[in-house]
Amino acid sequence: MYLFLETSNYILAFCAFAFAALSISGAFVKNGTAKSLISAFLAVLNIIIATVAFGHMYLLKGKMIYLILFGVLFIALIMLLFLSKAIYRECDRLLLNNMSMLFTTGMIVITRISTDRAIRQLAIFLIVLLACMLIPLIIMKAEFIKKLTWVYAGVGITLISSVLILGEVINGSKITISVLGLRFQPSDAVKILFIFYMACLLWKDINHIKVILSALTCAAFVLVLVMSKDLGTALIFVIIYIFMIYMSTGNYIYLILGTVCCTGASVVAYNLFSHIRVRVSIWLDPWADIDNKGYQIAQSLFSINSGGLFGTGLFKGSPTSIPFCETDFIFSAISEELGLIFAMSVILVCLSCFAEMMRLSFLVHDMFYRLVIYGIAVSMCFQTFLTIGGGVKIIPLTGVTLPLVSYGGTSLLVSMFMYFIVQGIYIRLRLQKGPALYRFHKKQEPQATKESGNNINNKANKEPLKNGNRKSEKEVPGKAKPGDRKTK
Amino acid sequence: MTEKLNKLYEYFKPVKELSRNKQVIITATFFSAIFLGICIYLIVFSFVNKSAFIDNSYNKQEKNLLQNTLRGEIVSSDGVCLAYSKLDESGNQVRVYPYADAFCHSVGYSALDKTGVESECNYYLLKSGSNPIERAKIEESGLLPSGNTVNTTINYNLQMTAHEALGDRYGAVIVTEVKTGRILVLLSHPTFDPNNIEENWENLVKDEKETALLNRSTAGLYPPGSVFKIFTAYEFRKEGGDVDGYSFDCTGSYKYDDLKISCYHGESHGTVDFGLSFAKSCNSSFANIGMSLDEKSFVEGLNSLMFNESLPQLFPTATVPESSYDISTDHKRMQTSIGQGDTLVSPYHINLLTMAIADGGTIMKPYTVESCVNSSGKVIEKAQPSVYRQLLDKDSSDFLRGLMEEVVEKGTASSLKNDLYTVAGKTGSAEYNNRGDSHGWFTGYAPADDPEIAITVIVEKGGTGSSSAVPLAKKVLDEYFASKGEN
Asked: Looking at the predicted structure, is the pLDDT value of residue B416 above 90?
């Protein structure tokens, strides 16, 4: 037993690292058989991680609750991995595996911090999971979601404005609203609406009016968010905007222009709002006011630092000394008790999710869905960067959560919705393209199938064939690198 | 104009038709780079701050570690355990210092605050470097795995000899190895008992008379007395003073205008050359030498000898301010050049200078921690001797060595002459009040021909250096060469 307790950390670190490595390589593997083999491995590793971590906690504390939690988590993971696969045969298993790994990590840390919260988190997960099963269906059947441009914007702005007016002030920020006793953080959910709004506006064509129009809408969102002191989410909106404009125009000038405007706006905001100045000064020197404002970040740095490569072991560190450890600083808690290798594996798994989503947006030809996937990928990736970067003091604290890992109903719900929207788009694509996409993976593209595939998905953006014999006239020769990459 | 506008428009033209794959690749590369950057930052960050954060009082890491690890032992260079931890009846860790107050400043203490080796190696003492299987075995038998053992350079025999020789008197002793920088003895009296420091803390902090918490050897500031003549001699030669042709007729005092400097107890030394002035510690002669020094060059010279700068940090150290050796007036000039001015020095400073003289001008960086080993004997960290600074040129150090040898040969430290080993050094009697009471100083190195150790002794209110500090130094040197002979 002692041997297990002493070595469990090394097992966890090894499994997490193996998972991350496999998961990253999984995002680049094209071969179907290899892909399913990797998926199986990932699932096994995931289960081992959950078993070892919960076993460790049970042996150390001897409370039944850990076993029960493990049992339910096990069922939840099986449901996530196999139920979705059973319902939608075409779903992306790599993303499912990554989801379950991130959620398992979150559950381990949340359970270690508070079993009550773990129960709540797990319950929310199960309910949301069931709801999520409908999302791919909606994506597949409902074409009208492409036309609701101003509905998204309207609902979004109404939601966050109502929070600004009606919301409760918690920890100095006005970002939560209570409905029927349940606390809800709408700004998180509005991200999805904003991504859909942008996609709706930009997918058919793009012109300067649309760029400016969307810029104004984005500014309205950001202004309301900054006023409710939700800086992290505000920043995410700006990034979503910049990158989606870049994606649809393909003009890097917008990327540069966006960055410049963003910097300018930050300077203005820095001078206008005192809470931003406070955040920046804490970031520059947390030690000056360690008793008060710098306490959180200082404790986070201590946590990250004290774990070493393999961590102190569960219950042997003190992640709870960081205020809001289970939401904003869960990454620090992971580094302390599970070790830097584990923590970095989590980063790599996030990266793998991002790479996989990017690959999917590569495959999807319909500009609307492509923009949606791209927006979701950018939003999740940037959010991950904000929360980890804030915890390790690369950037000022913004108070956003780590998708799927952090404790919190809204955050979990929104992240799962995002993942399943991506899944839905992928399933839709595979059902429509049918054999064509399959051939894609097999590296063989007989002319006939390819053509039929293109005909079905005959939107404004035709991907030229890889052998180039059907290069569209619209393409500027030399500039377009038609689909080479995915077939290599 | 229109052309320019068109050109501008071209730049901002939404070019939807062009390859979208490029965007995806650029975005993916951008974010991947950020993520990998974070990973690298994390590794570097935690490696750099590995042991730095643990001492922060807001950090709970130490408390956590102490629940799973028994704080490691501190062992002297001759294998005697100087500090260890044990569990009391209620399962709390208690730190035990078997030699009570003898090592209180060098080993330090770990309760409340941390000092000495306890502070320097806190991280290693708390961490157990043994592998998980060994740890599991120990835990299975119901014990706590212990942290790493720290081997210090402090020599138990020498330290105890010095400790006993100093007895009830106040003062400090430092012995260092000149070729490595290892500190063999670091003693400061009065002492306190680190075993019950928590109970006595209030008294120790309040007590301004004894100031037992002050490490006199490194942070104590004393008037240097005749020891300062080393600096004066160095400066005289550096300014091109005629050392070989120097001669002075000592009548027991030296007058300049209406200022008078007397030799110790008014003793007259007769006609002395430079070496003899130094060996007999003739105040009159050195006041005379001091009058010939250039003010600016003197201050610069002292600045180059670690005055007005912080010494290699090891323990709390003291810095000598430049204003204390200003020789702008004749009176100050005469007093300062015989070490009775406003200048104050720490024994550590004098010891570093002695190291430089003994080792051809080079100071090795002093250190007290030799190595950290885990419970199975594997060395985790090992100190490497390193050069701190080339303080003097070879000529100057040879010159000063000649002077210091003469002190033992026919001067104030002649009681150190013996058949077993050779010594060179300088004594000092630093008057600290108007009644002529003085602190006794000795600084020197041995063996004189091939120096191994540098020793600096100060005995507060000990009278002359020859009568208080020199006998103490002799005891320590005897012990050093006796135990060396045994090996």
From this structure: no
DSSP summary character for residue B220:
-
Q: What is the per-residue burial (b if ≥16 Cβ within 10 Å, else e) of A270-307?
A: eeeeeebeebeebbeebeeebeebbbbbbbbbbbbbbb
Q: How many CB atoms lie within 10 A of CB A485?
A: 13
> In total, how many domains does chain B have?
1
Whole-complex ipTM: 0.82
Q: Is residue B331 part of a domain?
A: yes
Which of B205, B209, B170, B222 has the alpha carbon at shortest distance from B191?
Answer: B170
CA-based nearest residue to A440, from A91, A36, A24, A31:
A31
Pick from A302, A347, A348: CB nearest B59: A302
Residue type at B44?
V
Output the pTM of the full model.
Answer: 0.78
* Measured distance CA(A286)–CA(A294) in Å, rounded: 4
For residue B95, report the phi and psi dihedrals to the nearest 5 degrees.
Answer: -90, 130
For residue B277, pLDDT over 80 is answered with: yes
Q: What is the pLDDT of residues B135-190, one digit of tens each?
A: 888 888 877 888 889 999 999 999 999 999 988 889 999 999 999 989 999 999 88
The ranges of chain A with pLDDT < 50 are 435-488
The most distant pair of C-alpha atoms in chain A lies apart, rounded to whole Å, by 70
d(CA A217, CA A215): 5
Say if B285 falls within a structural domain: yes
Touching B: A residues 234-253, CB under 8 Å: 243, 246-253
Q: Do B256 and B472 form a contact (C-beta atoms < 8 A)?
A: no
Q: What is the CATH classification number for the domain harbouring B279?
A: 3.40.710.10
Residue B480 belongs to a domain: yes
Q: Which two tokens stand for residue B406?
A: 């003469």
Other Cβ atoms closer than 10 A to A134: 12
Q: Do B60 and A461 touch (CB under 8 A)?
A: no
Query: Which chain A residue has the Cα nearest residue B43?
Result: A340
Contact yes or no for A333/A310 (Cβ under 8 A): no
The candidate with the shortest Cα–Cα distance to B263, out of B436, B462, B470, is: B436
- Helix (H), strand (E) counts: chain A: 21, 3
Domain edges within chain A: 2-133+277-433, 145-272, 436-487
Q: What is the extent of the structural domain holding B289?
A: 219-367+388-486
